Amino acid sequence: MTPTGPSTATIPGTNDGSHGGASRRDGDPNAFNPLFRLSSEEIEEIGERFQKIHDEVKADLGERDAQYIRSIIEFHRRLTALSRIVLMASRYPPAWLLGTAGLSTAKILENMEIGHNVLHGQWDWMNDPQIHSSTWDWDTASTAASWKHSHNYVHHTYTNIIGLDKDVGYEFMRVDPKQKWSPEFLAQPFINVLVMLFFEWGVAIHDMDLEAIKKGKKSKKAIMADLKGIGRKAGRQVLKDYVLFPALSGKHWKKTLKANFTANIVRNIWSNAIIFCGHFPDQAYTFTEEEVADETRGGWYVRQLLGAANIEGNDTFHLMSGNLSYQVEHHLFPDMPSSRYKEIAPKVKALCEEYGLPYNTGPFWQQWLMVQRTILRLAFPGGGETPKPGPYVAPPEPPRQERTVQGVEGPIKAFP
Amino acid sequence: MTTPLLPDDYFALLDPRWSTREATGTVLRVKSETDEAATVVVRPDHPWPGHRPGQYLRIGAEIDGIRHWRAYSLTSDPDHPRGLVSVTIKTVEGGKMSPWFTEVCGPGTSVFLGNVEGEFALPDPLPEKLLMISAGSGITPIWSMLRELQRRGRLDDVVHLHGTRTAEGFIFGAPLRELAAENDGYKLHEQLSADDGRLTTENLDDLCPDWRERSACLSGPREMIDAFTEHWEAEGIADQLQTERFQPVIGTGDAEVGSGGTVSFVVTDKEATCEQGISILVGGEEAGATLPYGCRMGICHTCVGVLREGQVRDLRSGEVHGEQGETVRTCVNAPEGHVVIEL
């Protein structure tokens, strides 16, 4: 299944530079950044068109959407309960394996499709206090409050603006050549593996805004309040996964503890991969503060479009990625229910084609390897602007194949 | 211990009604009272904490995936033997919830039960002489009070003036007429506004000459309450009058920019005034409140607060919306009249 059409990603090394694939060394890369090619009227027009897509979906939200999120939440809870019960017998290897797989899946669903999206306010329209960004908490080290600030506000407002968007490298990695190199980035390949394995803790610490602390911009009181929040949350997480549930397995508690640890690691590796593939692949553009000074609402939309990259995959893949595989759509409409991204993707692509804008996307392994390559390369000084894809072009319609039977004219009707 | 999920969340998987996170109930039946009004009988899923006759219940329901809330007067007896409760609802044309209650919902529908609220109640201790004045669907709290008086055997000297458009449209008309026939102490006057005009203060001396000597309970539309309150104040006996008004006070600004209004922040304990087109967030900050904020453009939902009273205007669309218990984004909404918000 490839509903997203052909990849418009430029495969490294094969770019002929015919449309905007120039590197920084060849001159001013901004000349190729589609944002600066558009007139301000065009940018406003694009903004209005995107807003229209948003408003249409918003007006259409109803029972079907409510049922969707409730069914996912219920499925997650059933799967968690079941996995925990199976893990009580974790001394039997098949039970261990089944329970661990179930729990990993449940944790991934809870973080990605449920937690991330509920905390974004995607389901606030239901006015259900149980499924609401102001009341939700999730099964990860980050506290909901600090994550909403660093992610919903800082990252989604200042997406990919170097220096403002703290998610570009999370303040301890160099993932864009515009970030200044310093010797500590030499440890990046090693840190990268740690971040992968213990992603949830990295995010929790990141929420505290390390740079502000280093520069003494954050008051001691605020730091203590953050630490207290993280401490409380971490304490509960550890108690649950490493004391309470293992205790249910009696003297075989070690096996269950290992299972829970494994599930957390699996979830961390997966969410790290999906999230890094959202903004760090080669196709995504970054911006400087000067470039986006006096940005309008239309400009914001175009920046969101250029700064994100999708991942191609089937429906299960999209679900397990919390529909962050539709990172472009998510960044355009962060408060739209994730289940709607797939439906509006064709409209977004059509707009890209009309205005000669790229629609960043690629298969999972390609995107992931690009990210890893960038992380390794940028551990060292220098590094050029990565080649960018050209404007999105819709794939030609495949010729319709209709089943025919000899001697029967025309296609066979399913229900004659 | 199992946070963020609680054992409660797992029990709810077995039966949603076992969850104690929210008070819920199941509709047992919807009884038609008049062409336009119906009584919705609900079995609460948890023991009913009780109420005073005259109080109202916030009741919520999900319509097309969205939770809505309204407040309706309780018309059931506080100590119903089977623990049932009921509210009586008049269909508001073009309304969202009242037609849903009276026409769509039926036995088995789940509803959410909010708080029992309201200060409207029988005077305590009960005075010798009572005067009840009601109009339209304002009858509902009065009905509860009359039932209470009947139960306590205290229908000694009650005069009841009720304004209704037609005799058929009189909610609880039949049982009240019966009550009047059986009890000498309860005198009911029905004023049909289609024939005799609306019930006004001018009717008082004719219909109840000793109204100044009675404790009065009044429930009806806003203009009526205002007029009667003024009348009692003019006599210097305003302390003998209790009222229940239905419509909240909402600003009536023009369609484009709205009226602006005032905001009470209940958590930060601040009062703010917002001029036309000024968001709740900005108005609050100018008044010195420290409020959650984020993108300031309506995308990040950092600034949301629960609306307790009043309505707001979406500064982007101009749409006036908001009902009790709804969460609103303070950065893109301005008060329309007076607003109370949990922030």
Task: Quote the distance from N terminus to C terminus of chain B.
Answer: 28 Å
Level-1 CATH class name of the largest domain in chain B: Alpha Beta
Number of helices of chain B: 8
Proportion of residues in β-strands of chain B: 25-35%
The H/E string of chain A reads: HHHHHHHHHHHEHHHEH
N- and C-termini, Cα separation of chain A: 28 Å
Name the average pLDDT of chain B. 88
Q: Indicate the overall shape of chain B.
A: globular
Q: Count every beta strand of chain B, where a strand is a DSSP E run of 2 or more residues.
A: 17
Tell me the count of domains of chain B: 3
Q: For the CA atoms, what is the radius of gyration of chain A?
A: 23 Å
Largest sheet of chain A: 2 strands, parallel
What is the chain-wise order of helices and strands of chain B?
Answer: HEEEEEHEEHEHEHHEHEEEHEEEE
Low-confidence parts of chain A lasting 5 or more residues at pLDDT below 50?
1-27
Quantity of strands of chain A, as a count: 2
- Strands in their spatial order, largest beta sheet of chain A: 1-2
How much of the sequence lies in strands of chain A comes to under 5%
Main-sheet strand order of chain B equals: 4-3-6-1-2-5
Main sheet makeup of chain B: 6 strands, antiparallel
Number of domains of chain A: 1
**The CATH fourth-level homologous superfamily of the largest domain in chain B:** Nucleotide-binding domain of ferredoxin-NADP reductase (FNR) module
Give a topology summary.
The complex is a heterodimer of chains A (416) and B (343).
Chain A: H1 34-37, H2 40-60, H3 63-87, H4 93-119, H5 144-157, H6 188-197, H7 199-206, H8 210-214, H9 220-247, H10 253-279, H11 297-307, E1 310-312, H12 315-320, H13 327-332, H14 341-355, E2 361-363, H15 364-377
Parallel strand pairs in A: 1-2
Chain B: H1 7-14, E1 24-32, E2 37-44, E3 56-63, E4 66-73, E5 85-90, H2 98-104, E6 110-117, E7 130-135, H3 139-151, E8 158-164, H4 173-182, E9 186-192, H5 193-196, H6 204-207, E10 215-220, H7 222-234, E11 241-245, E12 261-265, E13 270-274, H8 280-286, E14 304-314, E15 320-321, E16 327-329, E17 333-342
Parallel strand pairs in B: 7-8, 7-10, 8-9, 10-11, 12-17
Antiparallel strand pairs in B: 1-2, 1-6, 2-5, 3-4, 3-6, 12-13, 14-15, 14-16, 14-17
